[in-house]
Structures are given as structure tokens and as C-alpha cells.
Amino acid sequence: MGPRRTRRRGPVHVLLRAATALLLGLTTLTGCGPADGAVTDVGATGGTRVEGGTATMALPPAATPNWIFPIGTAGYLASYNNAVQDLLYPPLYTAEKKGAGLTMDSPRNLAGQPRYSDGNTTVTITLKQGHRWSDGTPVTSRDVEFWYDLIKHDKEEWAGYSPGLLPDNVKKFEVLDDHTFRLRLDRAYNPAWFTGNQLDNFTPLPRHAWNPHDEAPKKVFARLLQHAKQLSEFATDPLWKTVSGPWRIEKWTTSGQVSLIPNKQYGGPDKPHLDRVVLKPFTTADSEFNVLRAGGVDYGYIPPSVMAQSTRFKKMGYRIDPWEGWAITYVVLNFNHPTAGPMLRQTYLRRALQHLVDQKTISDVVWHGSAAPTRGPVPAGQTDRDPFPYDPKKTEALLTAHGWQRTDGRLRCARPGTGPGQCGKDIPGGQQLRLELLSQSGSTETSNTMQEIKSAMDKAGITLDIRQQPLNTVLGTTVPCKRTEPVCSAWQTGFFGTQGSWYFPTVASGESLFATGAPSNMGNWSDPKADELIKKTEYSDDPGALRDYARYTAYQVPVLWTPNPAYQVSVIRNDLRGIDQNPTLGLAPQDWYFVKKGGADR
User: Fold this and answer.
1) Coiled coil: which residue ranges (predicted)?
2) What pLDDT score was predicted for residue 17?
3) What is the rounded distance in angstroms from the CA atom of residue 161 to the CA atom of residue 152?
4) Which pTM value belongs to this model?
């Protein structure tokens, strides 16, 4: 998960002037690559590959990796956590871009393509030969079974759990031999959906190192969880030294800087070329920009507001490449909050709020064309049109028709009750239409987006109080909750989408996001018809099933749809090659390498 954004022309122009001044003052850039570190004066192609060197990549603003255990729990689902985990403990299947969509047929896969039989109720999977743990032990079917047993016996702890899906939909896990296992499913499933949205979770874990005494799964899981919460010991804990991926940990600081070095036992086809990869955290986009312009990172990003000045970076040996994500972006709404919940549970009120989000202007002015409107629960290009375009007059009409009136410029419920023309259940007379937004810090674009929405709501008589916190704090607070739990009173609405709020697996269905009780249904939304339509995407290979789900959910407004930005506008040294910006935000630094002048790129 990316991780949630605001517009005011004034602050945007201030940022543009400041960034332009920085660019005008750029001198020689130095990086972290081979030799003296200077940027090699080569074009986008050409040059001779160099083995070795260190590449430093900038992490998103206020984003610090803080979870290493490949089984995620609530509050630790940020995309950068998953990206690091997958370099140490890769899943069986990795999604890659193919045309306008994604494919699960990657050469990096640890297993061959799954074989479906018995009317799509049985799946047989064979691991590829040659994959080993860093201590030399082969990766086997038992390691996959170990992962499955952990989530099966501790599914309530696993943030990927949705009732009825993994592990509930697997009746039996059968180990056929060291490299082959079979899943007996509880019914027939759409093979594309099951491969892309269920098998993508399957991750071999080192059973011989993590459970040498064959302890019960619940006991093992509890022990692993204790280790996973010791951030200061990630680099030294022997537990995390047994890995199967192309990289292993060299350093992992509590501030979030991660240094990785090659795993010499890695059995995949893409062995690392670099000596080291450093993932460097920054508190704000501006602080990253300052380091980038001084040559402190090899793979960074610039604020969208300075894209017009990007030619200066190109002249100095850098390339500009927007990283587009398979994602949507939104403000999550807490339907279970004691005071805000009753208001947010009213469909008419959510639609009224959506009409105040000027997505086109925010995309054009705040994000300078690097964002596109989100029109529903699936990525752009898979939706029909914007169901609730910016229209303050429609907002006023909707709220007036349901019993809200202005008093001293603020909207209050004048006609309480559940009948026609009344405010709705559990909304008392005189209650002010006032909401609090917990938004991630560190991005001027995000701050300006939220201020634009606040301004539009203020003109409509709605009060929006904005509170900004670091991304990890926002993610740890905006979690699914019951109405009686204290955490449910801690937030009303939340935004964690500076780099996109939700990145989908291969099939952009809603079982993890908008189904009742889903692990990432942060706002606790529940709609029986949506649940039914989501199930159809799981069972049927009819493309109309996803379209029907997307259209219905978009009109129900379970969240406030906001512009979906590119994950980042990447700035990459021309002499750093092999970078493929995966739309699911996966990293493959084992494919990166530096080049020097002379010869041809190879």
C-alpha cells in the first residue's frame, strides 16, 4: 500500500519558485556509483556494463521501512515494506506489466505456471529447480507449506486475511514431493483471479531455520511476531539472515535506512550486478530534492511542480521517468466513528462530499499533470466516467433536500430523523457538519490537495479540520475497528495517498479493500450487494463481472475518490541501467547496473 492529497494556488507557486531557484543553482552532480562517483556522460543507451558499485535510491517522503516479517499485520502494510521483504523472501509469483495490464508469467517466478484441473477446483504447482536459502539449504514445497500453516492457524493476525478467502478457500494443502504441491479448493474459482490475487501471497519461508523443533504453528507465529517488532535488531537478528531472495541485509536503521548486499546463494536467473543497494529515507520531498541536486542519490524523484524544469537534469546526465502505478487514491471514511460515523453512513452525504472534490483542477494545478482523477474502485482506464464531478450546486441541493441548513455560515441538521427529507439515523438535531482529516505529512502536493478540498467544503458550509502526521503514524491509526474500540475514536477520515492509496494485485477486484470485513477495508464499509459483486469477480471469468462491481461501488462512494498521482516522477542517472518501474511498486535492484563509456551496452 502506498501508501492519501490538496490544492491552493498560492503555496504551489511558492514551491515552484523555490524549486526553480534550486535548479538554476545546480552545478556538477556527483553520485554513488563506481569509480569517483561522478555521473558518466553517456546517453540513455550505450556504454559498457560495470560489475559492482553502490546505488542509492530515495524512499518516499516520511516513509520509513519498519517491517521485515513476510506476513504483514495491521499498520505495517506500506508498499516500501513489501518491496524490501520481496527482495529477501520473494513470493512464488511476481506481477509484471504487460500492455495495459499485468501478467503473472515472470522469469523471476520461483514456480512454473499453476495447473488447474477438476473444473478449476484443484491447483498443482511445481517449484523451479536451483533455488536455495542463503545457508545453502534447498527451497522446497515444505517451506511453502510452512508459510501456509502460519497463516492458516493465525489468520486473524494476518493483515491479508479476508473471511472466505485464503486460507479458508483451501480445503487441503498436499505436498507431492520436494518441488510439487497441490491445493484442493473449496469450489471452482476464476483461474486468472486465483493466480493473480491468491497465489501471489504464497511465499516460501525457511522452515528449517525458523522452526527447527517442529513447534505448533501458533507458537512459532507468536515467536516470529516478537522478533518482527524489534526494528533495531533487523540487521543483527540471526532469524532474518536466512533468505532466499537476491539480497540480504547489511544495515537497517531505526530511521528507516536500509542497506542490502547480494545473497551469494541466490538461485534465480537475475543475479545482482551491484555490490550494494541503499534505500534512503527523507522527511519531506523538499529535503530529498536538496540531496538529489547535490548528487546524494542515484535514483530519486522531483516534485511534480518542477517538471517543466526537468530538462536541466537531463543535460547533466539524468533521465526523467514518471513511475505510473496500478493504483487508486482516496480519502478513507471511518463509518464506525462515534460522531462522524452516523453522518458518513449516509450515502447522500458521501455523494455531496464527493461533488466538492475538484479532481481535474487538483490534477492539473497541484500535480502538474502527473496525476489523473480516480473515478472508482479500479485503476484509470477500467472505469466508464466520473459519476460525481465537481459541482458545489449539487452538493447544496443534496444536503438541503436531506434536512441540512446553514446557521451562521455552517451547516447543521435542522430536520433530524430517518424519513424523507431528514438527516438520517443517529444524527441529532443541531449537529454541525464537521469532519476531521488525518493526512500524511511530507508532501507539498498532498498538503495543497487537502487545503483545496477544505476550501471547497468551507464555501459549502462544511468544516474540515486537517491534522498531518508521518505516513507510518497515519497507517497505524487508520485501521479497521469496531465502534466500541478506543482506536475508532482516534480518527474520522484519513489520507495516505501521496504515492497512491492502494496498489492492486493483477486483478483489480475488491476482496481486500471493499468487501465486508476485508483486511484493508479501513473505514469498515459494508454493502451486501458490493459483496455479491466482488464474489462474482472471484468465481467468474466474465470481464463484465469486474465492470459491474466497479460501476456499483463507484456510485456508493465508500471513500472519497481523489486524484491518483504517479508513484513518483523519477530522476535516474543515465549510467544506472536495468531499472524497470513495476506498476505494483516491486523493486528488482538485482537487475540494476552501472555503465561506463566505450563499447556497447550489454
Assistant:
1) none
2) 28
3) 10
4) 0.81
pLDDT band at 155 (very low <50, low <70, confident <90, very high): very high
Residues paired with 571 in a beta bridge: 300, 320
Structure confidence by residue, pLDDT tens digits, 196-219: 999 999 999 999 999 999 999 999
Higher pLDDT, 408 or 74: 408
Nearest to 562 by CA among 469, 445, 395: 445
CA distance 223 to 243: 18
Q: How far apart are CA 194 and CA 172, in angstroms?
A: 16
Element (H, E) at 153: helix 141-153
Other beta carbons within 10 Å of 91: 24
Closest by CA to 335, choosing from 346, 324, 320, is 346
pLDDT digits (tens, 9 = 90+) for 7-34: 222 222 222 223 333 333 333 344 456 5
pLDDT at 41: 58
Q: Strand pairing partners for 301?
A: 570
Residues 394-415 as b or e (16 or more Cβ within 10 Å = b): bbbebbeebbbeeeeeebbbee
Q: Is the CB of residue 232 less than 8 Å from the CB of residue 168?
A: no
Q: What is the 3-state secondary structure (H, E, C) of 443-471?
A: CHHHHHHHHHHHHHHHHCCCEEEEEEECH
- List beta partners, residue 440: 469
> What is the b/e burial string over 55-87, where b = at least 16 CB atoms within 10 angstroms of the residue's CB?
bbbbbbbbbbbbbbbbbbbbbbbbbbbbbbbbb
